[in-house]
Structure to design on (165 residues):
């Protein structure tokens, strides 16, 4: 019994010394694919998985291009909650998407990071470019109590949020 208690104390100390669960890395996967049949069907299952996450200021989140059928880039573009498309019409008329795509691709050479606010992810307009098969890291720089809403500017139905604690 005493050995069990000693082991339990050692594990607890290791967790505290290592920073606990709040310091653990966070990973969001981009999953899904697309299907197109002329005059019959267009379907996309692209999504962020998980969609909503929680993070702390200063924590790094990694987005990874995972098990997709198509080799397409994606963005992690921070937007105001009101700018998240809620129907098909808004998906195809996404104004904030056009601005992010112009920032990433408008100069002919892809720009991997767009900073609208402070360094890191903290303000609408911040955007990361995720290349096919790749990963991209973003440091959360928004203050505690903030919720960052984001989407893929290429596929605006892909949406996620980060509750900053």
């Amino acid at each position: 019994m005493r050995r069990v208690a000693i082991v339990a104390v050692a594990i607890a100390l290791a967790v505290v010394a290592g920073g606990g669960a709040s310091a653990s890395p966070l990973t969001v996967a981009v999953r899904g694919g697309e299907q197109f049949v002329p005059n019959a069907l267009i379907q996309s299952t692209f999504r962020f998985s998980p969609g909503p996450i929680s993070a702390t200021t200063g924590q790094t989140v990694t987005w990874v291009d995972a098990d997709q059928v198509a080799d397409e880039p994606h963005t992690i573009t921070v937007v105001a909650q009101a700018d998240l498309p809620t129907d098909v019409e808004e998906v195809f008329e996404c104004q904030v998407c056009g601005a992010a795509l112009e920032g990433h691709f408008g100069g002919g050479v892809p720009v991997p990071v767009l900073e609208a606010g402070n360094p890191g992810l903290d303000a609408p307009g911040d955007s990361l470019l995720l290349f096919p098969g790749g990963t991209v890291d973003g440091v959360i720089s928004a203050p505690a109590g903030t919720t960052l809403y984001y989407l893929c500017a290429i596929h605006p139905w892909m949406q996620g949020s980060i509750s900053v604690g």
Notes: Helices lie at 2-17, 88-92, 95-105. The chain has one domain: 28-164. The mean pLDDT is 87. The two ends are 38 Å apart (CA to CA).
